[in-house]
Amino acid sequence: MNDMPEGWKVGPVPGRGLRPHKNGHFELPLQALCPADAAAASLVLTGVEAEQLHAALCYALDGESAPADAPECRKPIRYPGGRQQY
Asked: How much is the pTM?
């Protein structure tokens, strides 16, 4: 959950990750919370938009250590001979 101005927080709905949506789109359920209110919304992306977001996040995370519970695509690949790639 990310802090926003004036006490608002926006983040994914716990337990409801990215999923297929209509017409080949993808949906990420989000929640917005403030001290006195709550709202739900979904971020709906085409396949191309989802790929662009994925690439932008990978680029932004470049050089950051992946946490232990990170998805497989964030974990280093170890090749014979000791060479490591991400």
From this structure: 0.64
